User: What shape does this take?
Amino acid sequence: MSPYRTLTLASLLIPTALVAQQPVVPFGQALRAAIGDVQQFLKDFKSREALARIEGILPAEVPAWADKTKPQEAYSSYQAYREYVQAYSLAAEAASASGYWDKAQAHYTKARDLSKLNADNVGEAFPLIVSYYKDMAAASKRTLDENVDFIKELKAKPNPDPGDQQQLDLIKGEEASIEKNLKNAELFGTFIETAKKEATYYAALQEQMTQQVDNERENLATYKFKNDRVKWVEGIMSAKGYLEKAAPEKVDRIRYLYRLNVLDPKNVKVVRMIESETGVKVTPPDAQ
Assistant: This one.
């Protein structure tokens, strides 16, 4: 019997188990279906419709990360958490565009925390998977090295019989498995780096949103009509050309107008400007 059969079958099947046999995640399907709608709503300046759409799929509770010692479950958790992070980040973007800065900050905080948790768990679990694939490749190479003379004889035969051909096919599969396992080791190494970069990225987004909220709070507190939102908004709207100068890009201007609408929902100048520039009827903001 060939010394290659068991090892070759294992090395060929494991990558399939990790990648091709993942269970379908309902949340992932819901997110993919929502992304296009949310992006279109934002493009059309229907930011509150966008927020309602994405918040409608956010989970009541994010499942715990899986057993880090089980490659299949660890890989599934890694991908699932990336989807949760994307959803909360998109919700934060829609909330910010709707003028709900505190809600945007909360969603970005959730995205940051989940991304950090994902990176921490990936950093613990995936090096084990990288080592596993490298060990598989090394074991295959040892098997080939230990049988190098036998392999040379087989490959030198001009007319191998069926038994020889079976051995040659197994050897070829073993050689291919080395390359495949090394590629999988490299792939999971990139997942580790990706998780780190994503954690840094979402932490930066959360920090930016927090700074924006803090700056507004400070400006209102030091305003001559201290913390009077109504007068603050009216002052901005009464300053001719201020908005156009402060936010020359339409997208930025509309986003800030939505913020003013949250600060003072009764200011008709804000509502009229949003509607005249976008053609979108402004839905009343939630109580803040």
